[in-house]
Each structure stands twice: as C-alpha cells, then as structure tokens.
Amino acid sequence: MSDSFLPTGITRSHGVLHVEALPLTDLAERFGTPCYVYSKAAITASFAEFEQAFASLRPLICYAVKANGNLGILSLLARLGAGFDIVSGGELSRVLAAGGDPGKVVFSGVGKTSDEMAQALRAGVLCFNVESAAELERLSQVASNLGVRAPVSLRVNPDVDPGTHPYIATGLKESKFGVAYADALALYQRAAGLPGIQVNGIDCHIGSQITELSPFVAALEKILLLVDQLAQSGIQLHHLDLGGGVGIRYRDETPIDLKDYAREVAARLKGFGGRLLLEPGRRIIGNGGLLLTRVEYLKTSATHRFTIVDAAMNDLIRPSLYEAWHEILPVTENTVPAVITDVVGPVCETGDILGRARKLAVAQGDLLAILSAGAYGASMGSNYNARPRPPEILVDGDRAHLIRRRESIKDLYRDEWPIPDDL
Ligand code: LLP
Description:
With 423 residues, this protein is an alpha/beta fold.
C-alpha cells in the first residue's frame, strides 16, 4: 500500500499502521475506538526542532496550551523545558497541575477576567500579553489591589496578511486581537505610568497554519520599528514574543523550515538585547497525534457513498469548521476494491464530515487512522449528541500510556438533575 505521507512516529509495517512500535490494531483492541493516539517521540522531536533551529537565540518556547492541553502532554513538554502560552485561568490550572513552571507562562487572550488576572498574578506568571487599553487599566487595578506590578507585553497587531483560513488569521487590522499598531506607542506610554504595571516586552501573533515565511518577517520588521520608537521614548523591552502560527503538512503543504525562520529572525534581532519568546502549538503536536476510528457501516445514496465511522465532528471538528483536510488511512490493507467515499460520523448534522471524496478500500469493521489530529483535535472536542469524549493514549516506544480515560455516559450528566416533583 502506498501511503501519501506518514508523519514522524507513524510507520506501516507488515501492512499495519503503527505508532512508534505499537500496531494500531492492538491499541484499538485495548482501548476501544474512537481514541486519540499520540507519539511521544514525534512531540519530543518537534520541540527539539524548535530548540535546535533557534539555538543561537536561546528562546523561551511557550507551547500554546489550546492546541492540546492534556496533562500528559503538558507534563511531557514541561519536562522538556517548555514554557506555556495560556488564554484562560483553566489553562493556567492545567499547566500547574501538570508541573509546569508559572515563571515560564505567558497569558494571552482578549477577554481576561479580573479573577483570571488575580489567579495569574498569584501564580507568578512571566507576562501578560495585554490586548486592549481597557484590559491594561483593569490589570493595573487588579495588580495594585494585590500590592504587585503585573509584567506586561502589549500584543500589537501588525496588520499583515498571513495567507491562511480567515477564521484563523488574527493579525489583520479588522481582527478582534491585539492593539492597533498606530495606538501602540501611546498605550505603552500609558502603561509605563500605571502603578500596577511593569512594562516587560512586546508581543504579536498573526494567525495559524502559516506556510510562508514572509508574513512572519513582515510582522517582525514592523514590531522592531516600534521597539526602536519605544527605546527613543525611554521604554526598554526585555523580550519580544513572536507568537505561534507555524503551519504543518496536512496534505501537500510545504511547511516552513524552522532553520530558515530562525535565520531570518536572528538577522533582524541583532540590535535587540532582550529575549525571544515563541508560542508554537500546532507545529509541536499537530502531526504527533491521530484519531483512530472504526467503520460502523457502508452506505450508498443516489449520489454518494458513505463510510460511517464511530468518530465524529464532536471528536474532531476541524473538517466541519474550516473544511480542513486530514489524511485518512486504512490501518490494515483490505482487498476490497477502492471507491470514492465520504467519511462521516454518526452526529446528526449534514456537516459531520471527516473526509470528503476519499479513495478508500474499506469494509465494515475496518479501522481508519485520521492523521495530523494532535493539535486542535481533542482540545476542541465536545459532547454534542451526548457522545462521551474518547480516551487519549501517549505511545512511548512499545508502551502505551492512557493519559485520558474514555468519558462515561454518567460523566456527561453528573452535574445535572431532573426537576423536582413539586416544580
Ligand atoms: N499564540 C496565540 C496568541 C494564539 O492565539 C495561538 C493560536 C497560538 C499562539 C498557537 O498557534 P499555532 O502555533 O498552533 O498556530 N482551531 C484552529 C486554530 C486556532 C488557533 C488559535 N490561536 C485550527 O484548528 O486550525
């Protein structure tokens, strides 16, 4: 069988798809389907790729928790020395529960509540990436009430087009994210005078699944212009956070070579004395995970063939939400003829499509692997249609660690009650 592409950690051996040394057939037997399977080696390798490419700049790599916030994954990355980019008090709690160092945490997001600010200040996070004037005022107030100063970067919106899906482009001027470039200088001056604020750095994040280098370079150049203007007005910054957004191969994309990215950044950061921060999510874990599912039924309509599997849009919403492509491979070779088929889930939505018009040789009961599902897969999962979320398994060589058990049906309504008889 010729597989179009197999990410690191995934191989086909004797006709069977493996994650590291484990056949997916064995994992399906042991943990049931659907289930998420991650490769520890793949995640470790992509983290190391960032470290090595950027070695000369000694960056702090703050993994974006939203991509996959499982405690098993976070603890692995914490052990590798990662910092974390969080966007909620919930993500901060996850990082701490996983043994992450709060001193390596940056807190992004447009809607931080006062409680979340206080939680992060008490935990001692490295920096708040502040996204509006109103947030800055509130943060100063919350920090003053606690008798501390909040370390701050402004997330500046450099207004560059990352050339990605409109839902995941964040650096355009019409976006809700960040502070307008033209307002940044004045807001920094305001920040420098606020009692509860300690100006620390500058931040930008222009979007996600970016496969060209030029938008990153354009954003960096605009940010550095601002850094110079700030220095002239007496505001020295200690770090520059370039955000995340580096894309991966899902189908036939050619991802950015991190060494090229690092070279472009290093060439432009020569005059900057501070530290570089990065916030990669997808590039760390996207290709390090897959969703394993079993074919329940084959069905033919007047115009389409359907392969109905036991995973659905509630488990992996990317194809439904962004028409994103995820490669779908049979776990074992089947001798039935290949047909063009839509791979769909059992959820009661026409949009519950995991793969459209795929050429597959499958029969009822076969296993399929939906690739590149490590990022924004489990973390965007829901219980729609009262479907328990699948287990997550981290494979390390020939060992499989359960890092999240399958939800039970009772888990789904354990916090609900029927109304009392007298209501
Ligand atoms: N930093 C900030 C401030 C972010 O908003 C994000 C992602 C990241 C870092 C990490 O970006 P990455 O390196 O993973 O591209 N659900 C969408 C992606 C949304 C990304 C949101 N922000 C998807 O499934 O494609």
